[in-house]
Amino acid sequence: MMTTPRHNFASNLVLAQTDADLQQQLTIHFGTSDLSAPNKSPLVTTTTDVMNWVVQKARSMYKAEPEKLVAAISSSATKNALAVWSGSGRDWIVFSEGLMELLRDRVDSVAERFEEAFPDLMNTTLMQRLLTRSPLPGGFTTSFSSFLYFAAVAFFTGHEAGHHLAGHKSQYPRQAHAENSESGAIDVDGAWLIGQALERDADLLGITLCRIAVSSLLGQLWEVDEAENLSADERKCFQRVLAALISTGALTAAVFIKPKSIDWTNQPNVLHPPAVARLLTLAASISLAIKKNFHDLDGFYRRWIRLMSLEVAVGATITPGTNADRIHQERIARGGELAAIRATGIRKALHDPMFRKYMAQLDATIKEIRPGLKPRM
Ligand SMILES: [Zn+2]
Known about the structure:
The chain is mainly α. It has one domain (about 100-370). Helices cover about 60% and strands about 5% of the residues. The chain has helices spanning about 10-15, 20-30, 40-60, 95-115, 120, 125-130, 145-165, 190-220, 230-255, 275-295, 300-315, 325-335, 340-345, 345-350, 355-370, and strands at about 70-75, 80-85, 90-95, 175-180. It has a four-stranded mixed sheet, sandwiched between helices. Strand 2 and strand 3 (about 90-95) form a beta hairpin. Helix 4 (about 95-115) packs across helix 11 (about 300-315) and helix 9 (about 230-255) runs parallel beside helix 11 (about 300-315). The structure holds zinc ion. Zinc ion binds near residues 159 and 163.
């Protein structure tokens, strides 16, 4: 059996600096083509370690030329992540330092909310053992917040790798897709549904890659292997912690999303979707992945994870002093559960019958365009 060639950030830096198409896309989306070496700072080093893990796994899924998949770090403070299809034949994944800092600064608040939302998980022996580990380097306050960061970066990297693996290249005529840019977006020409269907497609692969990375990390830290050496109770606990961590981490990665209320019926007519649509489809994709892979969790606990991880991730995005914050505080004062997702209109959208219809539309759209894609796997 052939082994997958190792991905190495330091040697790719030279490739990245001489890749004209990549340089051009960096300038468009970051305003600079400056790139960072993996040893630039503890935060960059930790992030490139996580990315390496995911890129290596994604490479192993390439049916040919896995070394085409490469990753780079933009030195920019702009918060963005890209998938770039270069004329050099390379499939680039780019993550900016600005995005790293944003995620790093957000995970402490997410970790605090997680502890409140999942007290049953915090008290387990496995979790207690996890909390005695030192945080990953990079300026994290607690070990748990650094693990949430790991999950968020693993999801983001997996999502970009997903665009490459699923062969979305032909759908992006400008040869690049940015998670947080207007330029290069395909939905400006009215192909809104296609754009969202591609995001969901990439999310599903992103979640798979994130799950594999986080489960290896936890297995190492706990010195356990999910498949072996665990009693039935321990296995259930492992799956609960893993599912909650992946779900919350991936939703935290969706930091650009500013929750607002939604009118599904107007969806096809707007140029850019209300961000809540993206958040909810992501939550639905996560639920699907958990259902498929965590057989020791019942439907009740899966729904609990879906709601609480949304509550935790959304709660951390509410800016003090805003209108959403005011409604949020009122909800909390009334002793209301799920105050954040209620205050932002997400709870209502979740129960909107149009949401199911919208998800079905996304599935039908990806089915329609699938024959025209050239997947790498
Ligand atoms: Zn994307």
